[in-house]
Design goal:
Elements lengths: L1 H8 L3 H8 L3 H9 L7 H11 L3 H11 L22 H15 L4 E6 L6 H10 L6 E6 L10 H13 L2 H7 L7 H4 L10 H4 L2 H13 L4 E6 L6 H11 L7 E7 L8 H8 L4 E5 L5 H12 L4 H11 L3 H13 L9 H5 L5 H4 L1 H6 L3 H13 L5 H8 L3 H13 L14 H11 L2 H17 L4 H8 L8 H15 L4 H12 L5 H15 L4 H14 L3 H17 L3 H16 L8 H17 L6 H14 L6 H18 L2 H14 L1 H4 L4 H12 L3 H18 L2 H18 L12 H4 L6 H17 L3 H7 L11 H17 L3 H18 L9 H11 L3 H18 L2 H15 L1 H16 L4 H17 L3 H18 L2 H13 L16 H11 L4 H8 L3 H15 L4 H5 L3
Parallel strand pairs: 1-4, 1-5, 2-3, 3-4
């Protein structure tokens, strides 16, 4: 019986012993039946320490009187913790803890229905771990699901509070710095939307820093009631635990229908997650509890108890308590009384006891149902219309009848108890009104806005003006902590209030802005409404910018451009008092219009018309907005509307004027880097891509990190270095739910496909360059290089006609809208060589001539050299030889080493045809050296054949280097640059365990026997 009362009080054996002035061993022996029943004085001390009501106190005191002995169970299956029938579950937890202590982190997910003992299991296990592993624990609550990162803060804030200034600074250092926003660390400021995407990554690194100090167990009870941002973080953490001394233990109800259920399912699917169920108590355990409460239990009576409660520990406890109160014996002839409780245990026990209480007790129960656990007595008293001292006194009565748990703070005995009481004493209308009253009381009491807002979410619209203000303030505070889904919930609720037209527009704008991070479709809807309701021109401009982004992400480019054009026109009519604000805001919108407009051929004519107007402005780049426009105009330049020199001038002015600071999203910085690739200023391109990658590492943005890696590899290819890459990106994020952005994916597969063709592996190239589901959506500038690669593949597989058809189809689209994508998709030169291969010299000559003219207009050595080589090959004879010599000379001044090798090969074979064998041998030898250095097996094989025909025995082909994934390649680069494993992990958004595994894998592939050997330059 003592065990039952202690567990109901939520006390450990040590806590009860201290409160009763006894030894913990005595408590343990009494519970296990290894000691005679307690003396009356001892029993009275236990009654006081447990806070028992009259009936329970009488039962325990009766156990202390001389009389009938309770039969002690022999082997009752009780675990060392005192739990019944849970040895297997405790063993699973202990094995997981052992692995975590050894640095092999994992997850244990306990799924069981209400009342099955999840909390008791966690408490029992955690209580035994304190000396061996740091346990940090938290619990979800039904009324606190709207608190942004509420459970996270329960877990982490005590750690930071106990840490000194120096240790706290270390825990929040480096990539963990952004975590301070979610934790409300003083001085953290507000988190920008751009940086908020990396908040989960930052919180992960905070836990890495905590685990650096020793093994940690993160325990979350009632995880089904945990707020969405916290569960999102738990899911993020669960995928990255391996290699850390960190164990994640979660307990919740299965199939709860909660918003977080899909995330919990994904956690359950992790390879290092152990799922634990809690079955009903077995017959021996039920017998043990019946004997402890009612004396020796006869078999049919025990079976009736098990059947009526479905062996649920909580329901069994309440049943036995009620039976004891009514002096029912545990005999078989009393089993029919137990059957009457089936299906309504709590209604016939706790709720029935509550129904017999006076009205003030019922009012207090209603108030506590509304306020939830941990309510203050002051607010609970006001909610119930009672004095505080009276409420405290009546609270004792609620504890005695089993509604509230013993001790402070105020807590229901169990969530099931709260649910049963709520259904019995409050209807839906009364409950909603109670939440409205609670919100008002909490506001008057000075409670935080999010606590007040949590009740407003559950109240019916009431028309109080302060409700909207409170919800907006709660949204503002939550927005600064990086929880947009919670912020949006507050604002949606605010919109249900009868707000004025003047208030509605800004409210819709706030909501749309937050929804951009979680639901682009909803954002588009609300931003469209905001655009109709707003009057302030600058708010309208912000709404237009956000709406255009939402439309762009939804592939509605025409609407996006139209929205921006109208917003620009409106700003042109705005009187800003001569300060230039309207013009500056307009520049930002116009830069965005160009960025979107040049992405698709359908919007390109409108974008081009607008670009011409901006060209005439001759902007200097004196303001951030002008810098954005200059960078955006580079898209116009690279489509043939200006030459490379003009494009470079635009970019230089933009960068000198402060583009890097002005472009928070780094989209235009990326565009500037790609423009530098087109103009062959590759070192400048690398510098910008490095910056994008660095910011991505700091913000935890996989989009930015993967983009930077892809464009850095593009620069390598433009230099002529053909890296042996695998089709698999090689990053764990792509195996989860963070696939590559479609444009990035297409660019990466194009590079890999081109590399495979150059390595004479058309079969693998075919698999890589297969049709992409998003191909039609990525935009024509991204499609061009991919189509050229597919054309090369057709040619490599012996089908020049199919290769030519692909090129002409793409060329027709360019010609239709009168643009040129010469820098990245020089289709004419490739088509010309295919026409020549098919014996169509006139067509070849026309296309090659056109490309050379366009190349001179563009003005880079690469473009001129490639076009000169093509025309030289097509033309032949002395004119052709001169063009090929010119191609070699021009390409020597460019960074394009592979194109130079091709020009050398073309010149060498032309010299052979002209019988200038000695010079041909020299030129072809240079071509071979360049081809081998670049890694082109295809070209090197062609050159070796030409040298053999020239009577030269070429050097053997070098062994084919092993292929690495793009992620492995970047990792090796960083390793050879002197970065530590942890620095690499932070830069590439990997875990330390990932880095260790990738280093080992890359070492095996490259034949390195140690990290030091792998880190040495090749």
């Amino acid at each position: 019986m003592l065990l039952v009362f202690r567990r109901a009080a939520g006390l450990t054996q040590e806590e009860l012993a201290e409160a009763a002035g006894m030894a913990a061993r005595s408590i343990r022996d009494l519970e296990r039946g290894r000691r005679a029943r307690p003396q009356r004085r001892t029993a009275q001390s236990l009654v006081s320490a447990l806070g028992l009501g009259d009936a329970d106190a009488a039962a325990l005191l009766a156990a202390g009187r001389p009389g009938r002995q309770t039969i002690p169970p022999a082997d009752d299956g009780t675990a060392p913790s005192g739990l019944l029938g849970r040895q297997d579950q405790l063993a699973v937890l202990e094995r997981a803890a052992d692995e975590a202590r050894a640095g092999r982190g994992g997850v244990v997910l306990v799924r069981a229905g209400a009342g099955m003992g999840k909390t008791a299991l966690l408490h029992a296990w955690a209580g035994a771990q304190q000396q061996e592993i740091l346990v940090v624990s938290a619990s979800g609550a039904e009324l606190e699901q709207g608190f942004a990162f509420g459970v996270l803060r329960q877990l982490v804030e005590p750690l930071l509070a106990r840490a000194g200034d120096e240790r706290r600074a270390r825990l929040l250092s480096g990539p963990a710095q952004l975590a301070s926003h979610a934790l409300r660390v003083e001085g953290a400021g507000e988190l920008s939307p751009e940086a908020s995407v990396g908040l989960l990554h930052s919180l992960y690194w905070l836990m890495v820093h905590v685990a650096d100090e020793g093994p940690v167990a993160v325990v979350v009870d009632d995880v089904h009631w945990t707020d969405v941002p916290s569960v999102r973080w738990l899911e993020y953490l669960a995928r990255r635990l391996r290699g850390l001394p960190l164990l994640l233990v979660l307990a919740g109800r299965p199939d709860s229908g909660a918003e977080v259920e899909p995330m919990l399912e994904r956690i359950a699917g992790q390879p290092y997650c152990r799922t634990v169920g809690l079955p009903g108590l077995d017959v021996d355990s039920v017998t043990h509890l019946v004997r402890a409460s009612l004396g020796p239990g006869e078999p049919r009576f025990v079976a009736a108890c098990a059947s009526a409660t479905e062996s649920n520990p909580l329901l069994l406890h309440e049943l036995l308590r009620t039976l004891a109160d009514n002096q029912v014996g545990a005999a078989d002839d009393q089993a029919h009384l137990v059957e009457e409780f089936r299906g309504r245990i709590l209604a016939e026990t706790v709720v029935k006891r509550l129904a017999d209480e006076p009205e003030p007790v019922l009012r207090l129960a209603r108030a506590l149902v509304v306020l939830g656990d941990e309510a203050t007595w002051k607010v609970a008293a006001e909610q119930a219309g009672l004095g505080e001292s009276t409420a405290r006194e009546l609270g004792g009565r609620l504890r005695q009848i089993g509604v509230l748990a013993p001790g402070e703070p105020v807590r229901f005995g169990h969530a099931l108890v709260r649910t049963a009481v709520a259904e019995a004493v409050l209807g839906p209308v009364e409950l909603a009104a109670g939440h409205a009253r609670a919100a008002e009381l909490l506001r008057s009491d000075g409670a935080a806005d999010d606590l007040v807002a949590a009740h407003l979410l559950l109240a019916e619209p009431g028309g109080e003006s302060w409700w909207v203000d409170t919800l907006r303030e709660a949204a503002r505070a939550t927005r600064g902590r990086g929880a947009p889904e919670v912020t949006a919930a507050y604002l949606r609720r605010a919109l249900r209030e009868p707000v004025s037209v003047e208030e509605r527009g800004p409210l819709l704008l706030e909501l749309g802005k937050d929804e951009m991070q979680v639901d682009v479709g909803a954002a588009r809807h609300h931003l469209t409404q905001a655009s109709k309701a707003l009057a302030d021109p600058y708010a309208l401009a912000e709404a237009a910018s956000l709406l255009a982004t939402a439309l762009f992400l939804s592939h509605e480019h025409e609407r996006a451009v139209d929205v921006l054009a109208r917003a620009v026109d409106d700003l042109g009519q705005t009187d800003d008092g001569g300060i230039g604000l309207a013009r500056e805001v307009s520049w930002f919108l116009q830069a965005q219009m160009l960025l979107i407009g040049y992405d698709q051929l359908s919007t390109l004519p409108a974008a081009r018309r607008h670009a011409r107007q901006l060209w005439e402005r001759k902007l200097a780049g004196d303001t951030p907005g002008e810098c954005m426009v200059l960078a955006a105009l580079s898209a116009s330049a690279t489509t043939g509307e200006a030459n490379a020199q003009v494009a470079n001038d635009l970019l230089d002015r933009a960068l000198r004027g402060g583009l890097l600071a002005a472009d928070a999203s780094h989209m235009l910085v990326t565009l500037a880097g790609l423009a530098f690739v087109a103009t062959d200023r590759l070192d400048d391109a690398v510098a910008l891509f490095d910056r994008v990658g660095d910011m991505g590492g700091r913000w935890g943005s996989f989009l930015m990190v993967s983009s930077a890696m892809t464009w850095q590899l593009l620069v390598q290819a433009r230099r002529g270095r053909l890296l042996p890459l695998t089709a698999d990106f090689g990053h764990p994020a792509t195996a989860a739910d963070q696939g590559l952005e479609p444009r990035v994916r297409l660019a990466m597969t194009t590079q890999v496909g081109e590399s495979l063709i150059e390595r004479c592996d058309p079969t693998s190239a075919t698999a890589v360059l297969a049709a992409d589901a998003d191909f039609d959506r990525v935009g024509w500038t991204w499609q061009g290089p991919a189509l050229l690669a597919r054309s090369r593949l057709h040619a490599a597989r012996g089908n020049p006609a199919a290769a030519l058809a692909v090129l002409h189809e793409y060329g027709a689209e360019e010609n239709r809208v009168r643009v040129m994508n010469l820098a990245s998709a020089p289709w004419r030169s490739r088509a010309a060589l295919l026409h020549l291969r098919l014996g169509q010299r006139a067509d070849a000559l026309q296309l090659a001539t056109e490309e050379l003219e366009l190349a001179h207009q563009w003005g880079t050595e690469r473009a001129i050299g490639v076009a000169s080589r093509c025309l030289g090959v097509v033309h032949g004879g002395h004119r052709g030889l001169a063009l090929l010599r010119e191609a070699v000379a021009v390409l020597k001044r460019s960074p394009a080493r592979l194109e130079l090798a091709r020009a050398h090969y073309g010149l060498g074979t032309a010299l052979m045809r002209g019988r200038e064998v000695d010079e041909a041998r020299q030129v072809l030898t240079q071509a071979l050296q360049l081809a081998d250095t670049c890694g082109s097996v295809l070209l090197a094989g062609q050159v070796r054949g030409a040298l053999a025909m020239a009577g030269v025995r070429p050097k053997p082909a070098p062994p084919a280097p092993p292929s690495l994934s793009p992620t492995e390649h970047r990792l090796v680069e960083l390793l050879r640059a002197g970065h530590s494993d942890r620095q690499i992990a932070q830069a590439l958004l990997l875990t330390p365990h990932d880095v260790t595994g990738l280093i080992e894998q890359a070492g095996r592939e490259l034949g390195a026997t140690s990290r030091a050997e792998l880190a040495s330059p090749a």
